[in-house]
Design brief:
0% strand; mainly alpha
């Protein structure tokens, strides 16, 4: 009959000297598990502190980067506004200077045109006066020539009359009867021809005088028209140049404030978990040892 309380394995281990080795191994395993748990807990605590330090450093760097970006955006914004208003004022001042220059040039040109027009008027007056004087001289010359013709005709008529009287006297003295009558008729006929010639010459001279007077008048009229054509058009002042006006200013919008970038939270490890794991492993080793001893 087999004894149930008989420990064959234990007897064999005891006999073989292995029981002591199992106790030692179990003790070492339990100790190692506990020590490993403690070391794991310490390492977890160090990792947690390192993660927290890294998070704080990342937060600090993100805040510093945001501060740098905001400072730069503010300086860039102020510089842009300053440059804009400086350029705007410069453009306006340049436009005012150009307006003043253009106004002076316009006034100068108007003054020069006015002077040229005044000179043109003076030339016109001088030319018309010269035309009038020339026409007057021509009139007087033609009148003098016509007066000479009249005087010459009068002298010739007077001479012809004297000559006729002399011829009539000679005819009366030197002849008698029909011969004297014929002589007187011949003298009268000759005097009549001479008078007709003088009258025709006077009429012709008078007509030529009238034509010359008309031609002088036409020449003066033509010269006056040419003088009028050469007369400049009276200049008129141009409208005032529009003064520059400062346009509406540009609307500036301040840059939005940059917030620090989001930093992932630190990944924490519970220091108790490695310790609990070590204790659990030690408990498991003890349980196994107890089973071996039964």
């Amino acid at each position: 009959m087999i004894n149930k309380n008989y420990d064959l394995l234990g007897e064999q281990l005891a006999e073989s000297g292995l029981e002591m080795s199992i106790d030692l191994f179990t003790g070492i395993s339990v100790g190692a598990s506990i020590i490993g748990g403690i070391a794991g807990a310490s390492q977890a605590d160090k990792s947690n502190k390192a993660a927290e330090a890294a998070q704080k450093k990342a937060d600090k760097l993100a805040k510093k980067q945001a501060d740098i970006t905001n400072k730069y955006n503010k300086q860039a914004f102020e510089a842009e506004k300053q440059d804009y208003f400086a350029a705007r004022q410069f453009q306006y001042d340049t436009a005012v200077r150009q307006w003043r220059y253009d106004t002076e040039i316009q006034d100068y040109r108007y003054l020069q045109d006015t002077k040229k027009y005044a000179a043109s008027v003076d030339n016109y007056i001088d030319q018309v006066s010269f035309n009038t004087l020339g026409a007057q001289i021509a009139y007087e010359s033609q009148q003098a020539s016509f007066n000479e013709l009249l005087a010459s005709t009068a002298f010739e008529r007077q001479g012809s009359m004297i000559e006729r009287l002399q011829n009539e006297g000679r005819a009366s003295l030197g002849q008698a009867g029909n011969s004297r009558v014929k002589a007187m008729q011949s003298t009268l006929a000759e005097q009549g021809r001479n008078a007709a010639i003088l009258s025709a010459s006077l009429v012709s001279g008078q007509r030529e005088f009238q034509r010359d007077i008309q031609e002088i008048g036409l020449q003066k009229y033509s010269s006056d028209l040419q003088a009028t054509a050469n007369l400049m058009i009276k200049p008129e002042a141009l409208p005032e140049i529009l003064t520059p006006v400062m346009g509406p200013a540009r609307t500036f919008v301040k840059p939005a404030e940059v917030l620090p970038g989001a930093v992932p939270p630190a990944q924490y490890t519970n220091p108790l978990m490695p310790l609990i794991g070590g204790i659990s492993s030690a408990a498991s080793s003890i349980g196994n040892y107890n089973l071996l001893k039964k």
